[in-house]
Amino acid sequence: MVTTTAAYYFGPGAGASPAASEKKTATAAPAAACTADADHPKRELRGVWIATTQNIDWPSKAGLSADRQKAEYVKILDSAARRNLNAVFVQVRPASDALYKSSLEPWSQYLTGTAGKDPGWDPLPFLIDEAHKRGMEFHAWFNPYRASYGASTAELPAGHPAREHPDWTIKYGGRLYYNPGLPAVRDHVTKVITDVVDRYDVDGVHFDDYFYPYPVAGAKFDDSAAFRKYGKGAKLAEWRRGNVNTLVAEVDKAVHRAKGHVKFGISPFGIWRNKSNDPTGSSTSGMSAYDSIYADAREWIKSGTVDYVLPQLYWPRGHKLADYTTLARWWSGEVKGTDVQLYIGHGLYRVGSTDDKTWTKPGELSGQVGVNRSGKQIDGSVYFSAKQLLTNPLKAMDRVAKAHYSRPALQPLNKSLGGQAPPAPAGAKASGARLSWTPSAGARAYAVYQVPKSGKDCHTTDARNLVAVVSDPLYAVRSAGTYLVTSLDRLHHESKAVKVKVDAV
């Protein structure tokens, strides 16, 4: 994830039985036609990146107790839940290390302060469960090619893949990278990811913008030997892009072979190519991911090797070199007519910075979400990063939540991932302010709607009456009235609704 000021400007260097509840429970009547309320979309991904590398977001520093680490994570999730966010993207592999128990790579130094040291617990089940408890998707975020923040394999812990296979690595800019041109590297990365998908209940696998390293002035990424061996007559740039495309396709296939419902997506640098590079590029003047880091997001979209793209549009509206609105519309055009979903990455970490006066305006982020909502292709937003979600600079996230996230939202559906609506909740009843029902087979969560006093039921159209998405088959209401409850599978296919009347609270 790009976090430095230089990177901002285009990258570094540039229940009850049915009989008991019969009187208060009935299948809801078909909803009358409703005009969709654009301010309350039925489905929208709303996420936050939680970076672990260099302890950016979590844990706040290395060496904390397990209880302290858990408390910090819960605080982030509670902050997200208060704003009706519904997804977290948690960095589980910053640099060929693991924030989970792995036989393939060593424990991350960001847990204990010492690379390879066992923290005494496996954080990943806890991280996933706490997200699911709050109705949030959990996307496991991997960096595919970064091997070490240092340049020496000898300093890596015993058993580290780069130490065991120094021939896989290239020193560049004071760091170690795995060589994307080597089949053995692609096999290892795919194996690491498949291992996580197999063993943990993740909802997604996520890559950020780091592929071939961002350019470092005066440095050469020396992959000439691999190019000679595997280049097969291609130009160097084409070969490098092909290496990345091959890894993406292999990971996509492996993830869906392991678990068909798991989403695979990538968060590329916000500019694919400029019009000056390619007439079909964006009307921008920044670093080209296609040319500089060999990331061809257009190819991933066209070939369907990703389920979503999440470009990092960390510039404000009106930026002279990379206008937010221009880029949002360009990316919308790229996914139109495909099965690939589009989310936008927002630079929450930029809010309040004075090097661009637009970021001193508290409403800039909210305005960007407004741009997203004005088109049909953008299915949600993700914010970088969790630290600023907590500090809430200029109260910008409060503005976003008030203007756009006053109601929860279901996850956007991706038909290519399968799934089906579970049975409608059975045995729904009210006891005082408490709604309860029997768990539905195949349900990951439940949606609760409050029908307005007018009786107009628009729950199939938008989220204006959606009050909660809960993981357990119960909900405490705040006021008397008529409620609808639906079942959701893990991909948020939604069942028909059952109606429950609450007489008094």
Give the helix/strand layout:
Elements: H1 5-8, H2 18-21, E1 25-27, E2 45-50, H3 66-82, E3 87-93, H4 109-112, H5 123-133, E4 137-142, E5 146-148, H6 161-164, E6 169-172, E7 175-178, H7 183-199, E8 204-207, H8 224-230, H9 236-258, E9 263-266, H10 289-292, H11 297-303, E10 308-309, E11 312-313, H12 324-335, E12 341-346, H13 364-374, E13 378-383, H14 386-391, H15 396-404, E14 426-431, E15 434-438, E16 445-451, E17 466-470, E18 474-476, E19 481-488, E20 498-502
Parallel strand pairs: 2-3, 2-13, 3-4, 4-8, 8-9, 9-10, 10-12, 11-12, 12-13
Antiparallel strand pairs: 1-20, 5-7, 6-7, 14-15, 15-18, 16-17, 16-19, 19-20
Helix pairs in contact: 3-5, 7-9, 13-15
Pfam families: GHL10
Region (Disordered): 411-432
Protein name: Family 10 glycosylhydrolase
What does this structure look like?
By secondary structure, the chain is an alpha/beta fold. The protein has two domains: 15-43 and 420-505, Immunoglobulin-like (Sandwich); 47-143 and 179-417, TIM Barrel (Alpha-Beta Barrel), CATH 3.20.20. Helices cover 28% and strands 19% of the residues. It has 15 helices and 20 strands. The strands form four sheets. It has an eight-stranded parallel β-barrel, surrounded by five helices. The chain has a five-stranded antiparallel β-sheet with strand order 1-20-19-16-17, with no helix packed on it. A three-stranded antiparallel β-sheet has the order 5-7-6, with no helix packed on it. Strand 2 (45-50), helix 3 (66-82) and strand 3 (87-93) form a beta-alpha-beta unit. Helix 7 (183-199) packs parallel to helix 9. It is globular, with a radius of gyration of 24 Å. The two termini are 47 Å apart. The model is unreliable at 2-26 (pLDDT under 50).
